[in-house]
Design a protein that fits this description.
mainly alpha
Length: 222
């Protein structure tokens, strides 16, 4: 590779990362506006199908694109052309959109006991071999945004269950889950961090079940 090609690929990679993070920032603004006043904790309604889809895709873009930026950079660098990035990002978000269809079909407003049970299950999932393998693949080189999306859904599904259990339209829990998902995409699996995190999620679920008022936003104000 010549020096000119190296500089061109590096510039393309940097531009792709900037565009990805810019899209994520715009998605956060849109998500905050769309969900304003909708959070009712565990009792949150998802609204009509059209509204949910219009809210879900920006929500996933906001929460998941920052962690995808390193992979987007590798895609742009290996291809050498910025045109590969929209296809990669679009197919990645398409996988999350399909996951949203499953969420809409399965989700129901629920009480604190169900919220606690779901959160405990999510904490247990964090320590499963499936989670570890999906997380490893989510950090590795992939051939397409579709493949990357599948592995990242498998890696982050437990965290998404926490969000849906505690407040599907809660910006606070979106930020918390988004930060954890970002850290897991950037950092390799390690028991020193992963076991305490899983234990904390399980403890959060137990508290949600027995003392729901102590969990921010879980129960709507009277």
């Amino acid at each position: 590779m010549t020096l000119t090609e190296h500089v061109t690929r590096s510039t393309t990679s940097a531009t792709a990362v900037a565009a990805t993070l810019g899209l994520a920032a715009a998605a956060w603004i849109l998500t905050a506006r769309q969900t304003d006043g909708m959070n009712m904790g565990a009792a949150t309604e998802l609204g009509s199908f059209a509204f949910f889809v219009a809210a879900w895709v920006p929500m996933m873009a906001a929460m998941m694109l920052p962690g995808a930026a390193p992979t987007v950079a590798r895609c742009a660098r290996s291809d050498g052309h910025a045109r590969a990035v929209p296809l990669f990002v679009g197919s990645y978000l398409a996988v999350w959109a399909v996951a949203g269809l499953a969420v809409y079909a399965l989700y129901r407003p629920h009480g604190s006991t169900v919220a606690g049970a779901l959160t405990v299950a999510a904490g247990v999932y964090e320590l499963t071999p499936l989670k570890r393998e999906c997380r490893r693949r989510c950090r590795a080189s992939v051939r397409s945004g579709f493949e990357f999306g599948l592995y990242c859904v498998g890696s982050s599904i437990g965290l998404m269950v926490v969000l849906l259990a505690l407040g599907a339209m809660s910006v606070l829990w979106m930020v918390v889950v988004g930060v954890v998902a970002l850290a897991q995409k950037l950092l390799p699996p390690t028991a020193v961090i992963d076991v305490p995190l899983a234990s904390a999620i399980v403890a959060l679920g137990i508290v949600a079940a027995i003392a729901p008022s102590s969990i921010p936003g879980l129960t709507p104000p009277m």
